[in-house]
Amino acid sequence: MTAFYQTVGLASSRAGPFVEVRALVDTGCTFTWVSGLILRTLGVSPDSTMEFETADGRVIEREVAEAVVLIDGKASTTKIIFCDEGTVALLGVHTLEAFLLTVDPVNERLVPVRGLLKALSNRISMFEYEKRVRPETAEGLFDKLTTNGTSHSKKMSTTK
């Protein structure tokens, strides 16, 4: 698979100012990584730390913040990892998904995709979902789904 770069804008808020950063598109990277010096200069302050496993198996801890990323004129907030000065900026999959973008490695570009909302409807019924997540409302939902409002519904236990 080929590697390619994408120029993105970064800011601490949607109002800007934005600074352009050339980032390596990296689908093996969860979040976007940018120099801590650049982020601090923009006024982005870390709000937590997270652990990451590197390609060679080491576990490292880095500061994390929310920042605004601009790609092709569209802005979105995303998690940004503070990396060391001199480290190549990486455009991670979390940011790509926030923009509904995927990688076209042959043409070395980002391409738009539709968001997906399939897993829940294909794997679990509405009643099963409610029974697991909100058992207190599942019984009423069962009545609605099975009787269309008539009075001959069966009562069902919602205990686990």
CATH superfamily of the largest domain: Acid Proteases
| Architecture per CATH nomenclature, i.e. the level-2 architecture of the largest domain | Beta Barrel
Given helix and strand content, the structural type is alpha+beta
N-C termini distance: 47 Å
Question: What's the oligomerization state?
Answer: single chain
- Helix proportion range: 10-25%
Unreliable stretches, pLDDT < 50, 5 or more residues? 149-160
- Tally of helical segments: 5
CATH topology of the largest domain: Cathepsin D, subunit A, domain 1
How many strand units?
9
- Name the average pLDDT: 84
What is the N-to-C order of secondary-structure elements (H for helix, E for strand)?
EEEHEEEEHEEHHH
Number of domains: 2
What would you report as the Rg, rounded to the nearest angstrom? Answer: 22 Å
Short structural summary:
Helices cover 24% and strands 36% of the residues.
Topology overview:
Layout: E1 5-11, E2 19-25, E3 32-35, H1 36-41, E4 48-53, E5 59-71, E6 74-83, E7 90-91, H2 93-98, E8 101-104, E9 109-112, H3 119-123, H4 126-133, H5 135-147
Parallel strand pairs: 2-7, 3-6
Antiparallel strand pairs: 1-2, 1-5, 4-5, 5-6, 8-9
Helix pairs in contact: 4-5
Notable characteristics:
160 residues; alpha+beta; Cathepsin D, subunit A, domain 1; 2 domains; two-stranded antiparallel ribbon; 5 helices; 9 strands; disordered C terminus
Could you please describe the fold and organization of this structure?
The protein contains five helices and nine strands; from the N terminus they run βββαββββαββααα. The chain folds into two domains: 5-112, Cathepsin D, subunit A, domain 1; 116-160, no CATH class. Helices cover 24% and strands 36% of the residues. Strands 1, 2, 3, 4, 5, 6 and 7 form a seven-stranded mixed beta sheet that branches. Strands 8-9 form a two-stranded antiparallel ribbon. It has helices spanning 36-41, 93-98, 119-123, 126-133, 135-147; strands at residues 5-11, 19-25, 32-35, 48-53, 59-71, 74-83, 90-91, 101-104, 109-112. The longest helix is centred in the C-terminal third of the chain and has 13 residues, at 135-147. With 160 residues, the protein is an alpha+beta fold. Mean pLDDT is 84; it is low at 149-160. It is globular, with a radius of gyration of 22 Å.
